[in-house]
Amino acid sequence: MKDIRECSDPVMRGSMAALQRAAEEARRIAIQTGTELITMREGKICKLSPEEIAKLPPIVESTPDSQRTTGP
Fold first, then answer.
1. For residues 54 and 31, what is the distance between their CA atoms, to the nearest angstrom?
2. I need a labelling partner for 39 at 20 to 30 A (CA). Which of 5, 25, 28, 31 fits?
């Protein structure tokens, strides 16, 4: 399977980074609002509490956009 970052379409190339940013934002909002997050782990659907979410390692963008800085 071809790596999406090697796609000739610039929109497709940026889609993985966009999904990773969206996942980080979902985590941030879930922690902020005290909401569980539904996710897939090892092929099973599970709920993560805000405390569990806070312990997760950050999602690292796999594109040059990872050098971006964002506000709080």
1. 7
2. 5
Task: Provide the β-strand partners of residue 47.
Answer: 38
The number of CA neighbours under 13 Å toward the Cβ of 57 is 3
For residues 65 and 8, which has the higher predicted lDDT (pLDDT)?
8
Q: What is the pLDDT of residue 61?
A: 64
**Closest Cα to residue 66, out of 31, 18, 29?**
18
- Please give the model's pTM, rounded to 2 decimal places: 0.69
Contact between 70 and 25 (Cβ < 8 Å): no
24 vs 1, 7, 34, 40, 54, CA distance in Å? 26, 24, 15, 15, 11
DSSP state of 9: S
